[in-house]
Amino acid sequence: MDHKRAAFLTLGCKVNFYDTEAMAELFRARGYEIVDFGEFADVYIVNTCTVTNLGGKKSRQALRRAKRLNPNAIVAAAGCYAQTAPEEIEKIPEVNIIIGTDKRKNIVDAVEGYEKGRVLNLVGDIMKVRDFERLGIDGLKNRCRAYIKIQEGCNRFCTYCIIPYARGPVRSREPDDIIDEVRALAKNGFKEVVLTGIHVASYGLDFKTGIGLMDIIKAVSETDGIERIRFSSVEPTVITDSFLEELSGLSKVCRHFHLSLQSGSDRILRAMNRRYTSEEYFSACEKIYSLWPDCAITTDIIAGFPGETEADFEESLDLAKRCKISKIHAFPYSPKKGTPAAAMKGQTDPATKQDRVRRLLELSDKNRRAFFESLLGKGYDVLFERATGGGIYEGHTTNYCTVCVKSDKNIENMVLKTALKEIINEEKIKGELKQLIFQ
Known about the structure:
alpha/beta, six-stranded parallel beta sheet
């Protein structure tokens, strides 16, 4: 091929998006042009998801669609669905390569060495993998926020979750490697980084050095050019007095915690193998608010877990109210084959699950408006990330509120003091710049 083109489609979580960007960089380094997934390409890679049954369905649809775009293209399935169900994917005639959640650094070699007429299945036993697969991103440009993958895998085995089987055991990235990537991103103009992984709180668990998540946060905070640090979802057990005391001394850490809940019922939490109680969750929120009253706490809640009664569900609603959760990501329970919860008695009917999701989202909207109202009239630093047209720029406060302002100057990738004036909708606030720019 004289002019090679590769296209990617990502399904699922932020970690998958990072992995896709890293694979795209490998193709770019070999001379491929990266094009949109809907365009004609020589290679199509679908980074699949398996968290829900819908994720698997969307993955299969995307793989079939790729071959329709170019019948002669090589179609590869990567990611979690490919890892957990390679035998299902092998039955999809459009698929040529299956690569899973390891050996992705070999994907270009696999594509270029592919022999037509067979399926190349590179999926191995992920539970035996012990090394972090370094898939770095060095070529990102013209963005404000970068995701940095610091660990892979999970050892928690919540009863509803397929991810430990898809991603394998905890593997942490070497600290020097993380900081090298952070410095490269800062050099490229990035001001905000998000430390992400499958279970970031487990960072360092596989090291013998005693290094943990806080050590990485501190090291990143010392990097010149980086002005904001976020990290992805953690459990309430992470929020100890010592953890918060150390965080409070790091001004670059954003005042937003995604504190995973899943259920407000202690009975259901035990059935989920979540390893904390509703009271421990409430206590973690109280500790956060005592330090930062305007901190945003967001969460995930599963509706209709097997055996969940109306009383159990009401406990979830009540706890989300008491904890002043500013946004709830609500999911209907989706039984995944191979997980303990899928075989549990008392499976909830779909209509009940959907009704409970609706009620959670209604509470989320109500809580978010109350949170926004508590911020009006105050001034916050906003990192402006993009122009939306008509002189309007959009960005985020440290507590992750989306703020829109009008400016006759280009303020992309600038952190500016902004007064929060008016609620536009449940997702956005209208702001006004409180400092002169480009004087």
